[in-house]
Automatic annotation (TrEMBL):
The lineage of its organism: Bacteria, Pseudomonadati, Pseudomonadota, Alphaproteobacteria, Hyphomicrobiales. The chain crosses the membrane at residues 6-21, 48-66, 71-89, 109-131, 143-164, 184-202, 223-253, 302-328, 349-370, 397-420. Belongs to the membrane-bound acyltransferase family. It is a multi-pass membrane protein. It comes from the Bacteria. This is Probable alginate O-acetylase AlgI. PANTHER family: ACYLTRANSFERASE, PROTEIN-CYSTEINE N-PALMITOYLTRANSFERASE RASP. InterPro entries: Ac/AlaTfrase_AlgI/DltB (IPR024194), AlgI (IPR028362), MB_O-acyltransferase (IPR051085), MBOAT_fam (IPR004299). Pathway: Glycan biosynthesis; alginate biosynthesis. It comes from Bradyrhizobium algeriense. It is found in: Cell membrane. Keywords: Acyltransferase, Alginate biosynthesis, Cell membrane, Membrane, Transferase, Transmembrane, Transmembrane helix.
Length: 454
C-alpha cells in the first residue's frame, strides 16, 4: 500500500479515528501494531511470516542480551544481518527463473520469495533496538512496544531510521488535543507535492537514462538528465520522509528530520550530514565508531571511511554499481579530509558557491551508478557524456519542462523558505494552496517511491 494511493487515505482515516477513541486509548499501541501489520501485508500477505520471524527473533535475542550482553548481542545482530543478506544478496548465487533451485522444497520456497519491502530499514531498527536497550541496562520492554518501534507504518518501508533510545520513550498514551495539526499538515502537503509534482514528472524524463534508451540521447542531454535525476531522487525521498514525519505527528510520534537542503553543501562530509541524515547517523553510531572512527591515526580513519561508505553502498543493493557509488563517496571523503581546515579558512561568497557547485556536480555524477545498477550500463552512460553523439535522430527533451519541474527543489535550496517564515509569512497560506493545486492538477504519472526497492 503506497502513500499516494486512495486505499492508503482510507486506511489512515480509519486508523486515526479508532486511535483517538477514548474507549480504545488503553489499546493505542496494539492498534498501531495491528494497523502497521495490515499496511505491510497489504498486497503481499506472504511476507508477514518473514516479518514475524524478524520481530519475534529480535525480541528473543533482546531478552537474552539484557541478561548477558556480551554473549547474546552479537548473536542478535548476526541474526538480523543474516536475514538481510539472505534476501538481499541471494540473487548473486541463484537463478530465480529456475524451476527448482535446490532439492529441498521449504528452502526452494524461501529462495523464491520476493525481496521484502523495506527489509533494510527494519533490520537497521532491529539492530538499533538491540544495541541501545542493552547499553542502557533497563528492564525488558513490552512486546507490543518493541513491535511498534520496528514496524510503525509511516517509517516502516523507507524510514527515517529512528534510534530506539529516541522512539521508545515516546510510547505512552496520546490525546487528540495534543496533535500539532498545522505542523503535520505542512509536512504531509509538502511531501505529496514533492513526490507527485516534482519527482513523478521528472521521472518521465529520467526514464531515458535507462539502457538502451540512453543511446538515443544527445551528449548535452545526458548531462541534463544527470542533474534532473539528482533533483528527482531528492524530491522523491524527501517527499516520502516528509509524509512519514507528518503522519507520525498525527499519531503522536516525532520522527527525525531526514533531509536538510543537501545540495547547498560545501563539502562531501557536510553533504552526508544533510542527505539521508538518519542513515548517516546510523552508520556513524553503529559502524564507524565501533570500527575505531578517527581514534587510531590518519590512515586507519581513511580505511574506516572507505569501509563504511562501501558497506553503505552495498546496503542499497547487491551490485557493483552500488559498491562503486559507496566507494567513490568514501574516496571523496578521504581526499577532502586533510583539505577541510584550509578550505574553511577561505570564506567568501564566490568561493563558497564554487565549492557548492563542485560538490553538487560530483554527487550528481555518482547518482548514475545509483540509477543504473548494471555497472556496464552505468559506465556506458558515463562514457557517452564525454563523447559526441552520432545519433541522427536523437530523443527530444523539453528543457522548459525540466526547469519547471526542478524549480521547487532549486527554490527550496536557495532559502526562500526563510522569507515565508519572516516578513512574507502572510504569503504562506497561498504558497501551500498553490502546492496543493499543482500536485492535484499537474501530478506526474504514478510511480513507486525510489527507496521502496531497498
Amino acid at each position: 500500500m503506497t502513500f499516494t494511493s486512495w486505499q492508503f487515505g482510507v486506511f489512515v482515516a480509519i486508523a486515526f479515528a479508532a486511535y483517538y477513541l477514548p474507549a480504545l486509548r488503553a489499546f493505542q499501541v496494539q492498534l498501531l501494531v495491528f494497523a502497521s501489520l495490515f499496511f505491510y501485508g497489504y498486497g503481499q500477505p506472504e511476507l508477514l511470516a518473514l516479518l514475524a520471524v524478524a520481530l519475534f527473533g529480535t525480541y528473543l535475542f533482546l531478552i537474552l542480551a539484557l541478561r548477558n550482553r556480551r554473549a547474546w548481542l552479537p548473536v542478535g545482530i548476526a541474526f538480523n544481518l543474516a536475514l538481510l543478506a539472505f534476501f538481499k544478496y541471494k540473487l548473486l548465487f541463484i537463478d530465480p527463473a529456475s524451476p527448482s533451485l535446490v532439492d529441498f522444497a521449504p528452502l526452494d520456497f524461501l529462495l523464491k520469495l520476493p525481496l521484502p519491502i523495506g527489509i533494510s530499514f527494519f533490520v537497521f531498527h532491529n539492530i538499533s533496538l538491540l544495541v541501545d536497550l542493552t547499553r542502557q541496562k533497563a528492564g525488558p520492554p513490552t512486546l507490543t512496544g518493541v513491535f511498534l518501534y520496528i514496524i510503525f507504518f509511516p517509517q516502516l518501508v523507507s524510514g527515517p531510521i529512528t534510534r530506539a533510545e529516541m522512539f521508545m520513550p515516546q510510547i505512552k498514551p496520546k490525546y487528540f488535543a495534543d496533535i500539532p495539526f498545522v505542523e503535520a499538515a505542512k509536512w504531509i502537503l509538502t511531501g505529496f507535492f514533492f513526490k507527485l509534482y516534482v519527482a513523478n514528472n521528472l521521472n518521465e524524463m529520467t526514464s531515458y537514462m535507462s539502457f538502451p534508451l540512453y543511446e538515443t540521447l544527445q551528449t548535452q542531454d545526458r548531462w541534463l538528465l544527470v542533474f534532473v535525476y539528482s533533483y528527482q531522487i531528492y524530491a522523491d525521498f524527501f517527499g516520502y520522509s516528509a509524509i512519514a514525519i507528518g503522519l507520525a505527528l498525527l499519531f503522536g510520534y516525532r520522527l527525525p528530520i531526514n533531509f536538510n537542503l543537501p545540495y547547498i553543501s560545501t563539502s562531501f562530509s557536510e553533504f552526508w550530514t544533510r542527505w539521508h541524515i538518519s542513515l548517516s547517523n546510523w552508520l556513524r553510531t553503529y559502524l564507524y565508531v565501533p570500527l575505531g572512527g578517527n581514534r587510531h591515526g590518519v590512515w586507519r580513519t581513511y580505511l574506516n571511511l572507505m569501509i563504511v561508505m562501501g558497506l553503505g553502498g552495498l546496503w542499497h543493493g547487491a551490485g557493483l554499481s552500488y559498491l562503486m557509488w559507496g566507494l567513490m563517496h568514501g574516496l571523496l571523503l578521504v581526499l577532502e579530509r586533510p583539505l577541510l581546515p584550509r578550505l574553511a579558512s577561505i570564506d567568501f561568497a564566490v568561493f563558497r558557491a564554487a565549492r557548492m557547485t563542485v560538490v553538487f556536480v560530483c554527487v550528481s555524477m555518482l547518482w548514475i551508478f545509483f540509477k543504473l545498477p548494471n555497472f556496464d550500463h552505468a559506465v556506458g552512460y558515463l562514457a557517452g557524456m564525454f563523447t559526441p553523439s552520432t545519433n541522427p535522430n536523437p530523443t527530444k527533451l523539453f528543457y522548459s519542462l525540466a526547469l519547471l519541474y526542478s524549480l521547487p527543489v532549486v527554490i527550496q535550496h536557495l532559502g526562500f523558505r526563510l522569507l515565508f517564515e519572516g516578513r512574507l509569512r502572510w504569503v504562506e497560506p497561498y504558497l501551500y494552496g498553490s502546492m496543493a493545486a499543482l500536485m492535484y492538477l499537474e501530478a506526474g504519472p504514478e510511480t513507486s517511491f525510489i527507496y521502496f526497492q531497498f
